[in-house]
Structure formats: structure tokens, C-alpha cells
Amino acid sequence: MGYAGWYSCGIETPGLDPMFIVKLHICDEAVSVPGLRFLSQPNVSCSGGSVTVSCESAQGSLPIHYTWSEKTPSQDSKISDTNKLDLHCQSFTQPHHQYYCTASNTQGTKPSEMVHVSVSNVAETGCSYMITISSSGKFYTNTEACRYF
């Protein structure tokens, strides 16, 4: 925003013309749709830890700000202002949850695809759940991982 524009540079020698001029155009770039990926090891959620989903835009002028929100029937609610979402089994109050990340800079805002959480069993010793990233087909489940832990 403050640095956008055309810049020129060259060689300045007293009494001689510059041999060449390079023109550089700097402009702000809008963020790209942020990509999502799992950062957690398969057995982390069995030992009471959280599952972490990372959100990152591949393109866009800095600074890029990230926000995680939970989609609900009545109104979406902001969860955090970071690019990482920590999902704890103890925080799941419903059998289904949906989350998304928003990346924004001075040129615009783009939401990520949805992260779906399906909780199948909640007990004092733990719970079983599956986390799916919408269209990419990536998923994380603690059921199989915990069986062998």
C-alpha cells in the first residue's frame, strides 16, 4: 500500500549518461485462497493433546492476517486470530462442528474450505472423532491411531 508504484534505478556517473535504466513496478497483491493441512502426529490426540490444522495463503502482500471461525446455524463465531486451529476433544459440545479460516490483507479477504468435525463417542477417558477438510479429501481420525497407541 505505502510502497506501491514505479521505481527507477541506474548508474549515475558525473559527466556520463547512465548506461541503462531499470524500471521496477511494485504493487500490492491480494491473498490467495488459504490452504489447510494437519500438523499433528497420529497419536497426539490419544494422549489428551489437540489436533492442529494450519492455514496459509501461498500468495499475497504482507502482512497477511488469519482468523479462524466456527460456522453455526445462527451466526459464525470467531475463535482465534492465528493461522493455527487447535481442536481439543473436550471442547466438542455437539456431534458435528464446522470451522474455516479467513486470510486477509489490504487487497481483500479469502475464506478457506471447511474443516468438518464428526464426534462419534465422548467419554471421560477420551472420545472418537474424524476431522475432514472439505474438497481435498484430507482427513484425520483418532479412532485407528488410538487403537494401536
Distance between the termini: 51 Å
Q: Helical percent range? A: under 10%
What characteristic shape results from the CA principal axes? elongated
CATH architecture tag? Sandwich
Give, in order, the helices and strands.
Answer: EEEEEEEEEEEEH
Determine the number of helices (DSSP H or I, runs of at least 4 residues): 1
**CATH overall fold name:** Immunoglobulin-like
Beta-strand residue fraction: over 45%
List low-confidence stretches: none
What is the mean predicted local confidence, pLDDT?
Answer: 79
The number of E-state strands comes to 12
Estimated radius of gyration: 23 Å
Whole-number tally of structural domains: 1
Structural class: mainly beta
What would the keywords be for this entry?
149 residues; mainly beta; Immunoglobulin-like; 7-stranded antiparallel beta sheet; 3-stranded antiparallel beta sheet; 1 helix; 48% strand; elongated
Question: How is the secondary structure organized here?
Answer:
Layout: E1 5-10, E2 21-26, E3 35-38, E4 51-56, E5 65-71, E6 77-80, E7 84-87, E8 96-105, E9 108-111, E10 115-123, E11 126-133, E12 139-141, H1 142-147
Antiparallel strand pairs: 1-2, 3-4, 4-7, 5-6, 5-8, 8-9, 8-10, 10-11, 11-12
Protein described:
The relative contact order is 0.20. This protein has a single domain (35-147), classed as Immunoglobulin-like (Sandwich), CATH 2.60.40. The chain has one helix and twelve strands; from the N terminus they run ββββββββββββα. Helices cover 4% and strands 48% of the residues. It has one helix at residues 142-147; strands at 5-10, 21-26, 35-38, 51-56, 65-71, 77-80, 84-87, 96-105, 108-111, 115-123, 126-133, 139-141. With 149 residues, the chain is mainly beta. It is elongated and about 80 Å long.
